[in-house]
Amino acid sequence: MKIVLKREERSLRSKILFIKIIFILFSLVVIWQQSASWVDAGDIETECQLYKERAGSNLKKIDINKATEEQLVALPGIGIKTARAIVAYREAIGGYKSLEQLRLVRGVGDKVYGCLKDIVTVVESH
């Protein structure tokens, strides 16, 4: 017994198959991007160590009360969004009083703070 599908039924099945393929491809892209961010999150210690090794004895601590966004982005674990958040928070509070206040900035977690505490400093503005 041979089943013959009408043209509309074949067209509908083709559309459903196309949608499934697009959904699978989209899911794979999302998973790939997420896994890439997991790798980056685990590499902050390595990135921090490399930064310190490259600087060597020339490592000069950056004052977060004076640092520009560009200077902050150059630090390990700091992207443009976090750099902007650091500057915005600094402006909102009138300047950092202690290094620990960096923990209050969105994007600065324990690992990033652990790295930055050896690279940045707070010189209170008067």
Rg calculated over all Cα atoms: 25 Å
- Give the beta-strand count: 2
Mean pLDDT: 86
The unreliable regions are none
CATH topology of the largest domain: DNA polymerase, domain 1
The appropriate CATH architecture of the largest domain is: Orthogonal Bundle
Percent strand: under 5%
Helix count, per DSSP?
5
Cross-sheet strand order for the largest sheet: 1-2
Overall geometric form:
elongated
Largest sheet: 2 strands, parallel
CATH top-level class of the largest domain: Mainly Alpha
Question: In whole angstroms, how far apart are the ends?
Answer: 90 Å
Indicate how many domains the architecture comprises.
2
Keywords:
126 residues; mainly alpha; DNA polymerase, domain 1; elongated
Task: Kindly describe this structure.
By secondary structure, the protein is mostly helical. It has 2 domains: 42 residues; 79 residues, Orthogonal Bundle (DNA polymerase, domain 1), CATH 1.10.150. The chain has 5 helices and 2 strands, in the order ααβαααβ. A two-stranded parallel ribbon has the order 1-2. The longest helix has 36 residues. The radius of gyration is 25 Å and the shape is elongated. It starts with 6 loop residues before the first helix and ends in a 5-residue tail after the last strand.
